[in-house]
Amino acid sequence: MNDYKALKTFLLAAEKRNFAQVARELDMTPAAVTRSIAALEDDLGVQLFVRTTRQVSLTTDGAVFAAQIQPAVQALETARKDVRNAHKADQGRLRISAPTWFGKAVLPPILSGFRELYPKMSFEISLSDGLVNIVDDDYDLAIRISAQPSDKFTIWRKIRVVPRVLVAAPGSRFTQMQHPGELTSDDCLAYSGESRRENWVLSDGGSTITISAGRAFSANNGEVLADMAADGAGVAMLPGFHISEHLRTGRLVHVLQGWAPPDLWLTLYYPPYQALPPRIASFSKFFEEQVAAHMVMLG
To answer: Could you say which of 3.10.450.50, 3.20.20.150, 3.40.50.300, 3.40.190.10 is the CATH number of the domain covering 91-162+265-297?
Structure first.
């Protein structure tokens, strides 16, 4: 970064027109400032300053050079600060992807709490129910509620188990069912990131049954599925905390209670870092500490 330092010294000299003042601000000796400017002039083959015993002033070439390099040097200085901040635990920027419902209902108080502790942190939040390409889409981390991940090229951190519940409208025929074999594919409202059919695997602790779900309806958004189930369109299989308010108000009821699908996991996942950058590690630790309480409050 010797060239950068020389250019920064030149620009400050162009602004101050006083080598002694430049030396004080950059913690250099006046002789070192003079040598730096002289070396830059020698490299460029032009005189940048006119020096007298009373003052220093820019030559025409010096003024043109200063105007041309100012934006580039400023951009480099900004980049240096950004990179340094990215490796501090208490400042920098985090770009996070989160599921839509979770991002609206759970994430805001966690972000606010983290910002209270680290006011120099900034966030860019993107809400999506699909599994993002964390590397190509340039995220620092993503929050997901999903089955056991199979991607071996990213880092996954399990936070907590997320049980799922089979729900339907109260008074619907689905509330009378005793066995999932009574369900047809048309009865099952499927969740799919690509809005297509999925297989439900249900167990009563001893036997297991697989149902092809979503022949009549599938969606990539849990709120849509909850609303469809509440309207009597079928049975939805959703995370318990997601539909806790619907259950509390009686808009939905738990059906086939002896049968359950495999649990999901709330996870954080990251690009393939060799080690988590401090700002990401700091947020991840805070998230894990706080998220359980916020999810419990939601039921």
So the answer is: 3.40.190.10
